[in-house]
Amino acid sequence: MDRPKLEVADIFRRYGEAYRQQHGASLSTAQRRVMTAIEVCRTAALGGHLEHCDSCPYERNAYDSCRDRHCPKCQQVRMPLSHGLVLRRRLRGERKDFG
Ligand SMILES: [Zn+2]
Description:
The chain is α+β, with helices and mostly antiparallel strands.
């Protein structure tokens, strides 16, 4: 799936701090937490993992997701990954198969 030219995260990263300063009094703690989650989703701030193919030696590094239910990236329907990629949590030693 190609990355859109502009994502909500891009807008939050660019204007989020100014928005917080101007409208911070009207933001709840939960709203602030969601903004931060979206800003750091799939960035180095959350760490990363190694994805690898079960059928071939293909591997790639990927950033971790925020998994917040309000995050547009995390709400996207997971498409079947090419190469039958399996996610391995390098940092936490967890393993999760993509469906
Ligand atoms: Zn996310």
